[in-house]
Specification:
The protein has three helices and four strands. It has 174 residues and is an alpha+beta fold. A four-stranded antiparallel β-sheet has the order 1-2-3-4. A hairpin with a 3-residue loop joins strand 2 and strand 3.
Length: 174
């Protein structure tokens, strides 16, 4: 999606939010790689399956937005409002979280991103409870010996971090 088309969608969305006509932003499947969406008001927008690869969403209002299956790889969500957003199935690899609903850290060779119930290490995204049950064989299958060494060195630290600094709920997942 080019910058002009995106600007028009956002302008119509703001009008819709104000009750002045316009229309709700429907950016399903949109290619928004590297998009500058800083401070954008995307309250209730449909971004299902959108490619937000390295998008700048700092300070964006994504309250109630549908981000189901969106590619947020490398996106910057610092200061973004994700309350009641649907993040089910979203790719969070390398995402800079908002430090509320999405938290992120980097340890050794892996980016780690977690939400209330999901944990993504590198490209592997599973529920936190699944991660706790993985044995050495399963970790080895993910990324070989490097992953197993990493896991055995840092898994306790990762779970302790999640326990001490849990991600907030995004609300009811739609």
């Amino acid at each position: 999606m080019n910058t002009d088309d995106l600007r028009i969608v956002l302008e119509k969305h703001v009008l819709w939010l104000r009750g002045e006509g316009g229309e709700r932003a429907d950016l399903r499947g949109a290619d928004l790689r590297y998009a500058d969406l800083r401070d954008a008001n995307l309250w209730g927008a449909n971004l299902r399956g959108a490619n937000l690869w390295y998008a700048d969403l700092r300070g964006a209002n994504l309250w109630g937005a549908n981000l189901r299956g969106a590619n947020l790889w490398g996106a910057n969500l610092r200061g973004a409002n994700l309350e009641d957003a649907n993040l089910r199935g979203a790719n969070l690899r390398g995402t800079r979280g908002n430090n509320k609903q999405i938290k992120s850290l980097h340890i050794a060779t892996y980016d780690i991103v977690y939400t209330e119930d999901r944990l993504q290490i590198g490209c592997e995204n599973h529920s936190t409870s699944e991660w706790k049950e993985f044995d050495n064989k399963r970790i080895l299958e993910m990324d070989g010996k490097q992953a197993l060494t990493f896991w055995n060195n840092y898994k306790d630290y990762i779970f302790q971090t999640i326990e001490l600094s849990p991600a907030e709920s995004v609300g009811e997942v739609k």
